[in-house]
Specification:
It is a single chain. With 588 residues, this protein is of the alpha/beta class. It folds into three domains: 2-158 and 273-316, Up-down Bundle (ABC transporter transmembrane region fold), CATH 1.20.1560; 181-271; 337-557, Rossmann fold. Helix content is 64%, strand content 10%. The protein has helices at 3-7, 9-14, 16-49, 54-103, 106-111, 114-157, 159-165, 169-206, 208-213, 217-242, 245-269, 275-287, 289-316, 378-385, 408-414, 429-433, 442-451, 455-459, 478-491, 508-521, 557-563, 565-580, and strands at residues 337-344, 355-362, 367-372, 393-398, 401-402, 415-418, 496-500, 526-530, 542-547, 550-555. A six-stranded mixed sheet has the order 6-7-8-3-9-10, with helices on both faces. The protein has a four-stranded antiparallel sheet with strand order 2-1-4-5, with helices on one face. Helix 20 links the parallel strand 7 and strand 8. Helix 3 packs antiparallel against helix 12 and helix 21 packs across helix 22 (565-580). The longest helix is centred in the N-terminal third of the chain and has 50 residues, at 54-103. The protein is elongated.
Length: 588
């Protein structure tokens, strides 16, 4: 149960000063609390003996009042210190998690669902925060009050009576230990069910358009209800065990009161203690209720913290497969590309490689086109060129230097990438365009948005570049999102520009204009463009035809037209479709 406190020892050491002040305040509060019953017992004995004067009564009441004010002030101090510390722990762990997420490879985000990662960053951190706040508060307060109360019972009343009445207390520790093991197991299941529900919510919100388009609202709601039922069921299982603490504490407390009544009455009759002592003793016994209740709450808090901390550390212990070289090359990315992959497969796939025997050499300043059926492996080539994965049989070099020898920051700075499904942040168009280069002057933003054929779109809106795009660009068409993403890639002025089917949602005329702009702007820079439309790559210096992860042909547009039947048939079919198309513009 207390392992979590040991695991968080690094944080308690970091905040030892503030925790030390808080504990000192707690001890002073406990001492002040223990004095009050002694004064009350003294007043009763003086009343019984007929020696109580008005002056004595006023003095003793004034002392009680002063102690109450002192305890109020001290409680405020230690609560403020402890809960501020708990917020610091949450912030530290949240930063560690977020930093870890940003450094992980693509495989990590394939292995973990978004909802699961969000659950770690919310529920698990909340449980840890409560350990460092409410948990420490409860532990220190229960211990301080319990020790001072027991000491007062022994010193100011009678040690034998105290011994009789605390006989039931060890049973509480036994109950707490056994229930803690059960809570640990059940709480882990509760967190897993919450992660599943969280992931469902995130996925449903992101895919609400598709859900509505297919009329699957009721079906999705039923599936969500099942997730909710599972969350309720697992949490109910936790609460059933948790609910056993209070009755157990109540039973033990009542047993102690009965024993006190029996032996206390006997001691008063035999003259060992006075009536005032017995009244004070009952007050002390009442004060012991909180430490006992606190121990019950503490066991629950610590067990939940144990589970949550273990889940977080398990996540943080996962290492990225993309590691920085011992002495990374930090020279600017440039030169020729040599791509030679004998075999590559994704870790979660079957034995069939995603790429097999794909080789090409691209000179600096040239443009490479990638064509092939859906799922043929074009996107995988981009992922390897950006070093999303390292586990492959082969070699990739830029300017003769292995990609794995470059500093990861150097790769990021030298490559501009636009994916098939461009991601936009819930910010303005201007913020999205400047994302990779926040200090880009407005003149350059205008220039690059014109090259990406998105500048004119902004002139048609009241807020222009300050228009909010909504979550993931929900307020924009597919073509607008692609063109904004292209402008964003251009603003970092990369030596290598990779477009992964990034013109699929724009009409043929707009596509032609953008590609013509590229021919001028990026005349001496390297570009790789994958596309389903052959027209997107006809001006490329080299075109690769990929099928089922293999390179089946390569050459110029004219060469492939002459010798590759699939390439020729696709081009002719697309040209025919282009001729019968009416109008233009972006389409979703």
């Amino acid at each position: 149960m207390f392992q979590i406190l040991q695991k968080l020892g690094w944080f308690f050491k970091l905040k030892r000063k503030t925790y030390g002040i808080a504990v000192l305040c707690l001890i002073l509060v406990a001492i002040a609390t223990a004095i009050t019953p002694m004064i009350i017992g003294n007043i009763i004995d003086q009343m019984t003996a007929g020696t109580l004067t008005v002056q004595n009564l006023v003095i003793q009441i004034a002392i009680i009042f002063f102690l109450a004010i002192l305890m109020y002030g001290l409680r405020y101090v230690w609560r403020a210190l402890v809960f501020t510390n708990s917020t610091h722990l949450e912030a530290i762990m949240r930063n560690r998690l977020f930093d870890h997420f940003t450094k992980m490879d693509s495989q990590f985000f394939q292995d973990f669902r978004t909802g699961d990662l969000m659950a770690h960053a919310t529920n698990d951190l909340a449980a840890l925060k409560f350990v460092a706040g409410g948990g420490i508060l409860t532990l220190a307060d229960s211990f301080a009050v319990g020790v001072t109360t027991l000491a007062s019972m022994v010193l100011f009343v009678d040690w034998r009576l105290t011994l009789f009445t605390i006989v039931p207390f060890p049973f509480l520790m036994l109950i707490g230990r056994n229930l803690g093991v059960i809570i640990n197991r059940r709480y882990r299941k509760a967190l897993e069910s919450f992660s599943q529900m969280n992931d469902h919510v995130q996925e449903s919100i992101a895919g609400m358009r598709a859900i509505k388009a297919f009329g699957e609202e009721d079906s999705d709601f039923e599936n969500f209800s099942e997730d909710i039922d599972e969350v309720i069921s697992t949490n109910k299982a936790v609460n059933k065990v948790d609910a056993l603490y209070s009755p157990a504490i109540e039973m033990i407390t009542q047993s102690a009161f009965i024993l006190t009544l029996i032996f206390g009455t006997y001691y008063v009759i035999s003259g060992r203690i006075t009536i005032g002592d017995l009244v004070a003793y009952f007050s002390y016994l009442s004060m012991m209720t909180w430490p006992l209740l606190g121990l019950g709450r503490l066991a629950n808090t610590l067990e939940r913290g144990n589970v949550s901390y273990a889940r977080i550390i398990e996540l943080l212990s996962i290492k990225s497969s993309i590691n920085e070289a011992y002495k990374p090359v930090d020279q600017a990315l440039g030169g020729d590309i040599d791509f030679d992959i004998k075999s590559f497969k994704y870790q979660d796939s079957d034995d069939r490689p995603a790429l097999k025997n794909v080789q090409f050499h691209l000179k600096a300043g040239q443009t490479l086109g990638l064509v092939g059926k859906t799922g043929s492996g074009k996107s995988t080539i981009f992922k390897l060129l950006m070093r999303d994965y390292d586990h492959y049989d082969g070699q990739i070099t830029y300017d003769g230097i292995d990609i794995r020898d470059y500093a990861t920051d150097t790769l990021a700075q030298g490559i501009g990438y636009v994916s098939q499904e461009p991601f936009l942040f819930s910010k303005s168009i201007l913020d999205n365009v400047r994302f990779g280069a926040p200090d880009t002057p407005k003149e350059k933003v205008d220039y690059y948005t014109k090259l990406a054929n998105v500048y004119e779109d902004n002139l048609d809106t009241p807020q222009g570049f300050q228009t909010q795009v909504g979550e993931k660009g929900v307020a924009l068409s597919g073509g607008q999102k692609q063109r904004i993403s292209i402008a964003r890639a251009l603003t970092i002025e990369p030596e290598f520009l990779y477009l992964d089917d990034s013109l699929s949602a724009v009409d043929a005329n707009t596509e032609h204009q953008i590609l013509q702009n590229f021919k001028t702007l990026r005349k001496n820079q390297t570009n790789i463009i994958s596309a389903h439309r052959i027209s997107s790559v006809i001006h490329a210096d080299l075109i690769l035809v990929i099928d089922d992860g293999e390179l089946i042909d390569k050459g110029s547009h004219q060469e492939l037209l002459e010798r590759n039947e699939w390439y020729r048939s696709m081009y002719e079919k697309q040209q025919l479709q282009l001729e019968v198309e009416e109008g233009g513009g972006d389409h979703e």
